């Protein structure tokens, strides 16, 4: 069954967004310990597709060796998975482009993996600020990519962007069934 991977810096709002997307509170949990438990959670949605919850990156206090272990682990998963349709890279919309996120996008590009950018926590600041950060991120990406991947602006709090994101997933996977509201 088709898989859609969700990944981002720790605390980016990944669990909240996953739960909001499928309207199942408590489905995804923030329980990943930095560098320690490298767990991949698969959530089967409507018996037709998977949300793949990947461990976050960018923990402040992580040794070089655990960071490398994480990279190896993620690389293994992402490059070997035939049913993987798209990697959703979550970015906190409150911040200006962060090198670690850009690096991850470049790496996905190099691997030829399809990905989309999903900005989170859009309710936390004014729309103007969000737009600014989105524009800056796009600009940074355009230095490397001829084609900018799909971009979504979301809020797990307000539900903003949910329909757009589900619509995109539906488009990528025609057999996909929308979660019931
Ligand atoms: P994860 O570590 O990436 O899974 O992040 P979580 O989903 O646990 O969220 C981290 C923190 O950000 C929590 O305190 C959430 O309540 C908060 N948060 C997540 N998404 C949103 C959002 O869309 N709006 C607001 N205001 N807060 C959010």
From TrEMBL:
Q: Which UniProt keywords apply?
A: Cell cycle, Cell division, GTP-binding, Magnesium, Metal-binding, Nucleotide-binding, Septation
Is Oxidoreductase among this UniProt entry's keywords?
no
List cofactor names only. Mg(2+)
Per its UniProt record, what InterPro entries does this chain match?
G_ENGB_dom, GTP-bd, GTP-bd_ribosome_bio_YsxC, P-loop_NTPase
Locate the EngB-type G domain: which residues? 1-175
Q: Which GO terms describe its molecular function?
A: GTP binding; metal ion binding
BP GO terms, sorted: division septum assembly
Q: Does the keyword Kinase apply?
A: no
Show the Pfam families listed in the entry: MMR_HSR1 (PF01926)
Q: Which SUPFAM superfamilies does this chain map to?
A: P-loop containing nucleoside triphosphate hydrolases (SSF52540)
Function of the protein: Necessary for normal cell division and for the maintenance of normal septation.
Identify the NCBIfam families for this entry.
GTPase_YsxC
Family indicated by similarity? Belongs to the TRAFAC class TrmE-Era-EngA-EngB-Septin-like GTPase superfamily. EngB GTPase family.
* Xref: HAMAP family: GTPase_EngB
- What this protein is called in its record is Probable GTP-binding protein EngB
> Source species, please?
Pedobacter yulinensis
Query: What is the gene name?
Result: engB
């Amino acid at each position: 069954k088709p898989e859609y991977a969700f990944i981002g810096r720790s605390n980016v709002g990944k669990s909240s967004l996953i739960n909001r997307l499928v309207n199942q509170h408590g489905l995804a949990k923030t329980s990943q310990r930095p560098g320690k438990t490298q767990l991949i959670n698969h959530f089967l949605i409507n018996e037709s597709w998977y949300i793949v919850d990947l461990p976050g990156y960018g923990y402040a206090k992580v040794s070089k060796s655990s960071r490398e272990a994480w990279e190896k682990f993620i690389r293994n998963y992402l490059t070997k998975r035939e049913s993987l349709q798209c990697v959703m890279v979550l970015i906190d919309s409150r911040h200006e482009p962060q090198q670690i996120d850009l690096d991850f996008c470049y790496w996905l590009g190099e691997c030829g993996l399809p990905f989309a950018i999903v900005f989170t926590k859009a309710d936390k600041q004014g729309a103007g600020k969000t737009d600014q950060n989105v524009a800056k991120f796009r600009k940074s990406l355009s230095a490397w990519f001829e084609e900018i991947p799909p971009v979504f602006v979301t809020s797990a709090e307000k539900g903003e962007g949910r329909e757009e994101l589900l619509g995109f997933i539906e488009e990528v996977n025609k057999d996909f069934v929308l979660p019931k509201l």
